[in-house]
Amino acid sequence: MGARSYQVAVIPGDGIGQEVIPQALRVLEWLAARDGFQLACTAFPYSCRYYLEHGHMLPEQAFSELRGYRAILLGAIGDPRLLPDHLSLRGLLVPLRQRFDLYVNLRPVKALRGLPGPLKGDPPFDMVFVRENSEGEYAGMGGRIHQGGPHEVAVQTSLFSRHGVERVLRYAFELASRRSGRLASATKSNAMQHAFVFWDEVAEELCPAYPGVELRRYHADALAAALVQDPLRFDVVVASNLLGDVLTDLAGALMGSLGIPASANLNPQGGAPPLFEPVHGSAPDIAGLGVANPLAAFWSASLLLDHLGESRAAADLLAAVEALVASGRVLTPDLGGQASTSQVTDALLAQLEVGA
Ligand code: NAD
Ligand code: IPM
Ligand code: MN
């Protein structure tokens, strides 16, 4: 393979993942042709449909196979025909994050010009969430006994290790020092006196190493309220796995729709392929209608290109998304428009043609 030839594993997954990922691939192919790089994309069928046929989300050897790729692009997982939901999510997405040790889940959240969001005055917020992605509340340890009986017990243990907490906090400190120097850390240390007090302590211990960063600790509930009432206060926000999950759906909604925000699951030390995906899920309520917003998938593709070092293509793609939204012409119904998923892609490609 040539220097600018990249092998990418593509897992469209379920529901609208099957609709938005092919559109993202159209855009990626267009950019590759324009900029003279090659994307060798291999599609994998792992999904709930695959589970219903094979009894598992993916075969064990898929983990080693996927490891060989430069990056993974994922749509979404989840199908109401396969319940409870954790069978699929803890069968594919969470294991990929944990086994590949993709401990940073990076989620940029930015107000898009011209898009009326739910916030008064449409404040021009621009922040990045750093969500711990390998342990915490998602450690997966626990169990149930006496199932179905009157004495049933369920235990789910969170796990916060110094290694895990320190590395994600360091990543957030470093990111903040490259941006505005403002870092907000979300915990619930007022109620959870072990794990979150520990998290707060590690965060304070790191401060002297990053003199250019001002750390502000928040209780996650108050941070949620401040995100709505004063979003301009925030730049880099770091949070545990579960708190980061909840806060980023809220932050995504502040952008105007869950159809917009994207995420990069990373191990900054390398050693495993990063995984790029929309923040949203498989949206069974609109799946099959052809109206899913592909912008989160495009944004994910832009994060992927940036990771590959194709920074011009990455920046132009993001700029085209922003220009398309600003023009307000071709938008899906979640953003108040009437366009279909593929019409948005056509408009995006036209935008790229003329230069964003
Ligand atoms: P969801 O994000 O799929 O949908 C929430 C709401 O947002 C729905 O009303 C949906 O129509 C809307 N929405 C989401 N993406 C959209 C888009 N691109 N365009 C327009 N509207 C969009 O969350 P949910 O309903 O809680 O979950 C549905 C399924 O997806 C579940 O099985 C869940 O576990 C799974 N899920 C998977 C991922 C993932 O694979 N990364 C993420 C979140 C949820
Ligand atoms: C996300 C999703 C997943 C998460 C689910 C589907 C397991 O909500 O990527 O935000 O909670 O991490
Ligand atoms: Mn989520």
Molecular structure report:
The structure is a single chain. With 356 residues, the chain is an alpha/beta fold. The protein has two domains: 1-106 and 257-356, Isopropylmalate Dehydrogenase, CATH 3.40.718; 118-254, Isopropylmalate Dehydrogenase (3-Layer(aba) Sandwich). Helices cover 41% and strands 22% of the residues. It is built from eleven helices and twelve strands. The strands form two sheets. Strands 2-1-3-12-11-4-5-10-8-9 form a ten-stranded mixed beta sheet, sandwiched between helices. The relative contact order is 0.16.
List the helices and strands and how they pair.
Blueprint: E1 5-13, H1 17-35, E2 38-43, H2 48-54, H3 61-67, E3 71-76, H4 86-99, E4 104-110, E5 126-132, E6 136-145, E7 153-159, H5 162-178, E8 182-187, H6 195-206, E9 214-219, H7 220-229, E10 236-239, H8 241-254, E11 262-266, E12 275-278, H9 295-308, H10 311-327, H11 341-354
Helix pairs in contact: 1-9, 1-11, 5-6, 7-8, 9-10, 10-11
The structure holds nicotinamide-adenine-dinucleotide, 3-isopropylmalic acid and manganese (II) ion.
User: Could you name the CATH homologous superfamily of the largest domain?
Assistant: Isopropylmalate Dehydrogenase
Estimated share of beta-strand residues: 15-25%
* CATH fold-level assignment of the largest domain: Isopropylmalate Dehydrogenase
Considering DSSP H and I runs of 4 or more, what fraction of the residues is helical?
A: 40-55%
The chain-level structural class is: alpha/beta
Instruction: Please state how the strands of the largest beta sheet are arranged side by side.
Output: 2-1-3-12-11-4-5-10-8-9
Order of helical and strand elements: EHEHHEHEEEEHEHEHEHEEHHH
Helical segment count: 11
Cα distance, first to last residue? 30 Å
Give the tally of β-strands: 12
Tally the structural domains.
2
The ligands found in this model are: nicotinamide-adenine-dinucleotide, 3-isopropylmalic acid, manganese (II) ion
The overall pLDDT average reads: 97
- Determine and state the CATH class of the largest domain: Alpha Beta
Give unreliable regions as ranges: none
| CATH architecture label name of the largest domain | 3-Layer(aba) Sandwich
